[in-house]
Design brief:
It is built from 12 helices and 15 strands. By secondary structure, it is α+β, with helices and mostly antiparallel strands.
Amino acid sequence: MGRGGKSPACTKRDSGLVSELTTVGTPIRVTPPTGEDVVRPFIIEAGNVRGRITRLNASLHQVLSRHDYPEPVSYLLGETLVLSVLLSSALKYDGKFILQMKGEGAVSMLVVDVTSEGEVRGYARFDEEALAAVDPAAIEAAPVMALLKGGYLAFTVDQGPDTDIYQGIVPLEGDRLADCVLDYFQRSEQIETAAEIAVGRTPFGEWVGCGMMLQRLPTETLPKGVTVEEAEDDWARHRLLMSSLKAEEMLDLQLTGIDLIWRLFNEDDVRVADERPVSARSECCRNRLLSAMMSFGKDDIDDMMEEGRVTVTCEFCRADFQFTQAELESPADTNQE
């Protein structure tokens, strides 16, 4: 039923001859094994299942190292980043995909956004005293419930001011993020979904994360000759195989995503689409912060003013931005003067 055999020797691929889909009969290493920072879509054709796998190293480390978060918060934010990359890669959009969790526990908020170019960033809000009071064993067993204690999970696709914003919201009712994803798709999209996520550190202290997600396609799209009963059996088998993934192999930088797909589904007809790069968003937009500040009233801005400037710290990148009184004068204030 799969999960057997070693990957065949990998061959190099000519960058000028890249097809949209590649059969995984002979895994092809498309990037050096260390790191990756890509997401790969794939299809298990006979089983009528689509999937995504991502491995984040430099991008994840850059985002998490910007913040001096305690380990439990960093791990949870890391899992949220991995999950966001998986989910956003399944959508067609031009703008930002935003995943937000708001809770009532020691961690009150987690926010991650992924641009259509694959740039990621994220931050968390937490209460240090409340976090110190949480039992580490509870965090290990059920991090979402232990740290967030309920709340909601929201997915938002923002394609700019002239387009409608898509948003889906469900209660946070899973022990782990993968459970919450399953609950969301069952409630909102009626798509059977399963996911596995792992986050950890390399021997050199760098953050690394990996995630795989499977989704069962509608029965109307079943390949010719495949019955509904056979598809249900295949779906159960594929979920079981994915659940056999161990954290140490998911985080092994010497294994590519294709290597992991081969380990699990080497007996299936799997086709892998071209990888999509993922990177940490290098800088925030000063003009966007300025626009946000200009929404405040004059009295509020005056209260924030120190030595003729207002200093704003971006929660995503932890960079400080300074704005002068002249910059913060809104058109309304100028007209009144």
